[in-house]
Amino acid sequence: MLIISILLLVFGTVGLLLSTLMFGDIGIATAVGAITAILSGIGFFIVNKRLPKI
């Protein structure tokens, strides 16, 4: 799960940077998707810390 959280954080950050280069509604939609990816990555990271190791 740690790999998934890192990938989501990386893709979210890149998507947020790329959304500033886009015009109009597409830029807003890209920013919303990127923020969602970042929040999901943070969630996966928190869950990974709280789950017991097997």
From TrEMBL:
<feature type="transmembrane region" description="Helical">
    <location>
        <begin position="27"/>
        <end position="47"/>
    </location>
</feature>
<protein>
    <submittedName>
        <fullName>Positive regulator of sigma E activity</fullName>
    </submittedName>
</protein>
<keyword id="KW-0472">Membrane</keyword>
<keyword id="KW-0812">Transmembrane</keyword>
<keyword id="KW-1133">Transmembrane helix</keyword>
